[in-house]
Amino acid sequence: MIVYLPEIYPDELVYSWFCRYYVHSGCLTHKTALQEILYNRCNNPSKEFLGHLNPQMSAALQQYYPIENLVLYNTMFPQYARFISLDQKKEALYHIEHDFCDAHHLFSILPRDDEDKFMKYCPICVNEDRQQYGEMYWHRIHQIRNMQICTKHNCRLVNSAVIAKSEQTFTLCPAESFVIQQKPTIETDPLKIAFAKYMTDVFNAPMDLERDIPISAVLYHGMRNTKYMKSTGKTRYTKQLAEDMKAYYTRLNLSSIASMYQIQRVLLGDRFDFSVICQIAFYLTVNINDLTNPTLTAVQIEQEQEQNTHYMKDRTPIDWAVYDAETAPILEQVAKSIYNGSASETGRPERVSEKMIYRELELPKHRLEVMPKCRAIMERYNETYEENWARRIVWAYNKLKSKNEPFYWSDIRRLTGVKKKNIEAIIPYIRKHAKEETADAIIVLVK
Ligand SMILES: [Zn+2]
């Protein structure tokens, strides 16, 4: 039973709220807190989204706030979903709200750069929060990728020791326990401040859940009357734009600067990355309202769509070797996180299928066929269903074992989805992926 749910603070991550629930509720252990929040003991809380909540928790939340509002105002949803198509956006919202679907199945969540590996905080906000609320919390706005400054205080953000992505051994890390008192460093570069402010405002702008205006059309019109597009609108100089943007954002010390292909794919309407779009739009000085609340007419949208078909045929020829080399390290990280389970909120290791890779990287059909470096990675991760089932079983066994409670084959089956009739074919792989004693113990349990 949920006894006491504290008030959620402005711009607080739901995850942070749960962390404070754990601190305030008087739950004796971390484990009990997680059990009160999550669907079952096999779920992990989600740092960026809601996680798989149990019915009591979900009912308790709804007493305070509509879940849709929590998703929109207290998760990182606007970072990943702001620029996807209206249908996809609505579907994603529905699934997160109603069946607590793992967001990785709904839109692309790319691996993080080193600079974005940890939860960030602003030392001045820490003091203000403590004065105003008696405690600090994880602010959503500080966790935006590529965000280096708190725009409320123009203060540089500091990395905590808390890893930002989903992990296999997941814990509630209240900001109060993980923040180290720091002397604030004030940012003085007006351009850096302006860019951080731009991302903040785009992130916070209301999300349009009515109209479907493709971001590619918005950027097409934002590019008119710039030197990157001929006045006829029929030719676009993407390569020049990418080079100029690179020089510009290098001066700003941005940790991940949009590449030529990322830019091209956003402009062609097959990628929707928040950071890439903010970089293009800020560089082209598209105003925030035109970006987040565009008022293009049907004719203007059609104009871009027509030109787009033309650009597709006429696009700067893709240097496949470069594209392959650029994509390979990203693919490696995505494949690894699917393989070892850190890509999913449950932590379950999955088979790296081409379907998943195409979805995660938003690659056009058959694209991998002409990318040998990427192909080689896919082959390295290639495995049979039986081998994957074996890895899932080993994972489930270790997970259940670490809880120090009795468990049975039925628990493993529930976690892994593996059927008993396949066990004989799986056993050799269990031996391959587990230590001898573990393998023996598992086999006794499953036979
Ligand atoms: Zn601040």
Q: Describe it for me?
A:
The chain is mainly alpha-helical and 447 residues long. The protein has 4 domains: 14-178, no CATH class; 213-314; 320-381; 385-446, no CATH class. The chain has 22 helices and 4 strands. It has helices at 14-24, 30-37, 55-64, 67-74, 77-81, 86-98, 123-133, 175-178, 190-204, 215-223, 238-251, 260-267, 274-283, 288-292, 298-314, 320-340, 354-361, 372-381, 385-401, 409-416, 423-433, 436-446, and strands spanning 118-121, 149-150, 155-156, 158-163. The strands form 2 sheets. The protein has a two-stranded antiparallel sheet with strand order 1-4. It has a two-stranded antiparallel sheet with strand order 2-3. Helix 16 (320-340) runs parallel beside helix 18 and helix 19 (385-401) crosses helix 21. The relative contact order is 0.09. It binds zinc ion.
